[in-house]
Design a protein that fits this description.
- The chain is mostly beta strands and 612 residues long.
- The protein contains eight helices and 41 strands.
- The strands form ten sheets. Strands 8-9-10-15-14 form a five-stranded mixed beta sheet, with helices on one face.
- β11 and β12 form a beta hairpin.
- The structure holds dinuclear copper ion.
- The site of dinuclear copper ion has 8 residues, from loops.
- The site of dinuclear copper ion (CUA) has 8 residues, from loops.
Length: 612
């Protein structure tokens, strides 16, 4: 990429932003669809239910936001990497331990578990770009159940999380190469040789969903970016893009845009699995890492358009689609051709022992989609939809003929996009959401800290049409849309499933046990009181409260808010939570129920008496 080209791109982007600022605030101009028709398509009458759920990553809020489609109504927030007092997440012992001392995460890319390449509605995985973790949310109760990590050797887990066809693995990797193992010091001048990237597969237990490290592969010091798992014929492969193949440091906007191409990384995870099994690995950072210098046939590179931001596999698993955000083309690689090139060793070089495949031998097409292409989703009619960041538009194009058939402008600067089940083997079509970075002028002003914009687009017809604008807290990266009837969440935790060893179900079993300075309280929350209502301890005691909500009625949550002790735990019906603290402040401290539960909710209170 020549610098002049880059400057033209930047100039175009700046112009696009300023043009946005001048738009009419009432904002209906430029909307293609008939407003009344659009309103009918998104209106979900009171009491009626949406057809789809959408799970949006909450970026550096650390959360996942759940909306209904087509109404775009916000239904729920699932706290993942950040404490959330609304649901008591991060305040009880169990969730505190899961958060591992971190108070934030950068929730990036959600990935619903799959069976045979289709969403199965069991779990939602989401990556943490900041602290190198992977979380698993159970879609049975919409709660975070596991946080895996920090993952050894993985630094900036941005290129994550994407599940393989039967959720054998969740893909992970390093956005930022660093000296390995973590904790090693090397000067920045030695970046090109002594810093390393890693791509990884986190194994998922098919019954419990529990995560363990499957394999890691040592990679050159590039910046690894979004990926996708293969499907059908390519199901044993995982793909990522990378940028900064220059191995540059400093101002990457200049230093990492010198070459003409970056790469798509292709990993045969079956071969990675085998290499680990055969003992072909090194121990780095306490885990098994495959070095491609020593192990052949595991990883290959395909030259792609400059500075790609992701790769997407077509529903039939035949095409590998990568967009270079500094060019106007999307590159389509042919999986069969890739296998042939590997077999014939049609290589043009290597990077730290990783073969680089001959571009002309593996490429099927360069689709001229528009400026700043980022990500691609699919429908049920053989079309692909690519987000165009610089152009602020979505391009619709045909797989196989590579012809761009429609384009719709969005407001403004689209990043990700998501179509209904649009990254599975059987996309639904119907709806697509443009996740835009800027929203100015399209909502009531809330001051300098603006929400993010999401635009719902109808993709059921030949032409795309804009249906609805909605907003969300910072900052959705990727999102996934699943048919609502694939989920069947529970409404209470059945009593017989409560395995908490300290749970009690009868008020007369409530007790306080003192053991030296340790005080254990077996407590119950039920409409509309706590049992016990008074807890007396001595200053300096370690207090542990096992609080069971014995309700078995939908919506009957109770909270335990303790004044000036910075504690709020919410207990769902049938649930037991452990509240642990040191009574380090003497005096009398009221506690009360924080969730409205009955006409006598206000009366649901008690006192902690801390004797000096
Ligand atoms: Cu229990 Cu309010």
């Amino acid at each position: 990429m020549k610098h002049t080209t880059l400057f033209v791109m930047i100039a175009f982007l700046v112009t696009a932003i300023f043009m946005g600022c001048g738009d009419d605030k009432k904002g209906r101009s430029g909307v293609r669809s008939d407003v009344q028709e659009a309103a009918q398509k998104v209106y979900v009458a009171p009491g009626d239910l949406d057809e789809y759920y959408v799970f949006k990553s909450g970026g550096h809020s650390g959360q996942v936001y759940v909306y209904g489609i087509p109404s775009m109504r916000h239904i729920s927030t699932i706290p993942v990497f950040t404490p959330y007092s609304a649901t008591g997440y991060g305040f009880d012992k169990e969730s505190k331990e899961m958060l591992g001392g971190f108070t934030w995460g950068d929730a990036h890319h959600p990935s619903i578990s799959e069976t045979d390449g289709d969403y199965d509605g069991r779990w939602l995985f989401i990556s943490d770009n900041a602290n190198n973790r992977m979380a698993r949310i159970d879609l049975r109760d919409f709660k975070t159940k596991e946080i895996f990590g920090p993952i050894p050797n993985v630094s900036g887990n941005h290129c994550s999380s994407f599940v393989t066809e039967n959720t054998e693995y969740v893909l992970a990797g390093s956005r930022f190469s660093i000296p390995l193992p973590k904790g090693t010091f090397e000067t920045i001048e030695d970046y090109a040789t002594k810093y390393k990237g890693v791509v990884a597969g986190i194994a998922v237990d098919s019954k419990s969903g529990k995560m363990t490290l499957g394999w890691e592969i040592l990679m050159p010091p590039f910046n690894y970016d979004l990926g996708d798992a293969g499907k059908g014929p390519s199901k044993e492969w995982g793909f990522w893009t990378c940028y900064n193949s220059e191995r540059a440091t400093g101002k990457l906007e200049v230093t990492s845009t010198q070459k003409d191409r970056d790469y798509v990384v292709a990993v045969n995870w079956k071969n990675a699995e085998k290499a680990i099994k055969d003992g072909k690995f090194k121990m780095i950072g306490g885990v098994k890492v495959i070095d491609p210098k020593d192990v052949k046939g595991v990883v290959f590179l395909m030259p792609a358009a400059k500075s790609p931001h992701g790769v997407d596999i077509s529903p039939d698993g035949k095409y590998i689609i990568a967009s270079g955000k500094l060019q106007s083309i999307t590159t389509v690689f042919n999986f069969e051709k890739m296998l042939t090139a590997i077999e014939k060793q049609d290589f043009t070089g290597n990077e730290d022992g990783i073969p680089v495949l001959n571009y002309d031998a593996v490429k099927d097409a360069e689709v001229n989609v528009g400026l700043g292409p980022l990500h691609t989703q699919f429908d049920d009619q053989g079309y692909a939809y690519t987000s165009l960041f610089v152009e602020s538009a979505v391009a619709k194009w045909k797989l196989g003929t590579w012809e761009v058939v429609d384009k719709i402008p969005v407001s403004y600067n689209i990043g990700h996009l998501t179509a209904a089940e649009g990254d599975t083997k059987s996309p639904d079509g119907k709806y697509l959401i443009a996740l835009n970075k800027l929203s100015h002028g399209r909502h009531l002003s809330v001051g300098p800290s603006q929400p993010e914009a999401s635009q719902l687009i109808d993709i059921s017809g030949e032409k795309m049409s804009l249906l609805y604008d909605a907003f969300t807290e910072p900052e959705p990266h990727y999102a996934q849309i699943i048919k609502a009837d694939k989920l069947n969440p529970i409404e209470v935790y059945p009593k017989e499933e409560n395995k908490h060893p300290k749970a009690i179900w009868d008020l007369k079993d409530s007790k306080v046990i003192r053991n030296g300075k340790n005080v254990e309280v077996y407590a119950i929350a039920v409409r509309s009181s706590f049992e016990p209502t008074t807890i007396q301890v001595n200053k300096g005691d370690k207090v542990t409260i096992y609080m069971t909500n014995i309700e078995q009625t939908t919506d009957e949550l109770h909270g335990f808010g303790l004044n000036e002790y910075n504690i709020n735990v919410v207990i769902d019906p049938g649930e037991t939570k452990t509240i642990e603290f040191v009574a380090d402040k003497a005096g009398v401290f009221p506690f009360y129920c924080t969730n409205f539960c009955s006409a006598l909710h206000q009366e649901m209170q008690g006192y902690l008496l801390v004797k000096p």
